[in-house]
Amino acid sequence: MKLEGEQTLMRIFIGESDRWKSKPLHEALVEMFRQEGFAGATVVKGIMGFGCHSVTHTDKLLRFSADLPVIVEVVDSPDKIEAIMPRIDDMMEGGMITLEKAHVIRYRKTKE
Fold this sequence. Notes:
This protein is of the alpha+beta class. The chain has helices spanning about 25-35, 80-90, and strands at about 5-15, 20, 25, 40-45, 50, 55-60, 70-75, 95-105. The protein is about 20% helix and about 35% strand. The strands form 3 sheets. The protein has a 4-stranded antiparallel β-sheet with strand order 4-7-1-8. Strands 2-3 form a two-stranded antiparallel ribbon. The mean pLDDT is about 90.
């Protein structure tokens, strides 16, 4: 797969406790992206954050949170991102999605 030039970076901001059916939402999203042939996806777990309700979620010892922030990042073509958006929207109850242009300068498999 060749993925170079102007692409779209999608970031999906959710909570660690968010679910799709009985599975963690971030896992369900990554599996969907893989099944749909996306170039790749990465899940980043935050150590602190807050959302629209202004409730702080943190991993500090005195205040354990079972709902730390999670960001799922995907880079692919604008058309592919746009086509999958309705499915993502159906899977999410809360959270936020952002899109921005990303200039891909290198994407390839390692030499075997």
